[in-house]
Structures are given as structure tokens and as C-alpha cells.
Amino acid sequence: VFPNAAPAALVVADLPVGGVVRIAGIKFTSAPANNLAPTAVALSNCAGMVILSDVICEAGGTGFVEGQGSGAIYQCANVVMDRCEFTSATNASYLDDGQAGLYMLDSVVQMNSCTVSGADGSNFFSTKVTPGGPGIVAESSTLRIARSVVQGGVGGSESILLPTPVPIFLEGGPGIRAIGSTVHFSGGGQNQT
């Protein structure tokens, strides 16, 4: 249903024009699959309207597949989110960068009073320390954000034990990584980009 996605806790797919799906007041937590953090909520190929209200999405696990977040939206024409929370896995694996809180591709999304957090980077005891994940990754999409808080994850850090310890600190993730997208901000919250 969704590119690179392990099974999600909720999948809404192939909603036709004129169709409406409303999901309210539910918490979705994905279970790790093969040490990957699958998407908690995946919306795919929806020409109709998808409304999420007071929904909490948490990705479990320790890894990350490119093109995933705790929420993932792929080719959806009208997604509206009110008072939703998207939190990615608490740490990335030592092989991958921090996971995005929300990933969208070729979609139109309106977020009102939402909170989105990217995963912290890995603090793995090796030379592979990873940066924090972005709060939101928007590719070829239109995103409208009002009264919301969006933040990237904290960058990983490590001390390599050589004759003298050498600290390594990587950057935190951006609030929003927009690739070929339009992002509109309005009112309140603490948007961090």
C-alpha cells in the first residue's frame, strides 16, 4: 500500500473522490517489525477527504526505512488533522538517521493545533552516530500548518575512546524538510524550522 512500509496499525487506502473517512480520539502505536519502526498510520491514494481528530501516532522500534514516519501520507488530495500528535521512534538504529515524525509525498495536508516530533539520532558506541530526524518531510506536497508545534529530533552524540576521548556531536533534525513543496504557516504554536 505504501512505499517501503512495514504493516501499519491503521491503513486508509484508495478512497474515491467524494468519499470521507473520519477517525477521532484513537491512539495508534506501531509494533517493531524486524527491528524497523513501521508507520503507525498510513494514508495512501485517497482522492476523497481524510479527517484525523485527536489522533495520536507513535512509531515503535529502533530503525527507519526511507520514506516512513510515525505517520505517512502518499498521494492524498485532502487530509485534515486537528489536535493530532506524531512521535517517531525514540532512537534510530546505529545504521540510520532519526525517523521523521510525519512523511508526506504528493499530498495536500492541513494541520491545526498538532504536535510533530522527529526521532533523536543514535548515540551508538561506535563511529556511526546519526543526526536527529526531521519533524516533517514533505515531498511534492502542499502543507498548511496553523497553531502547531513541529520539531526535529536531537542529534546523536558519542565519545570515541582513543588514546584521548573524542566527542562527536551531530546536528538535530530540521522541523520541516520541504522538497519541491509549498508550506504555509499561520498563528500560534512554536514552529521550529
Concise overview:
The chain has 193 residues and is an all-beta fold. The chain is built from no helices and 17 strands. The chain is 0% helix and 47% strand.
What does this structure look like?
- The strands form 3 sheets. Strands 1, 2, 4, 6, 8, 9, 11, 12, 16 and 17 form a 10-stranded parallel β-sheet that branches. This protein has a 5-stranded parallel β-sheet with strand order 3-5-7-10-13, with no helix packed on it. A two-stranded antiparallel sheet has the order 14-15.
- The protein has strands at residues 10-13, 20-24, 27-30, 41-53, 56-59, 69-82, 85-87, 100-105, 108-112, 115-117, 136-139, 142-146, 149-151, 157-160, 166-169, 176-179, 182-186.
- Strand 14 and strand 15 (166-169) form a beta hairpin.
- Helix content is 0%, strand content 47%.
- It has no helices and 17 strands.
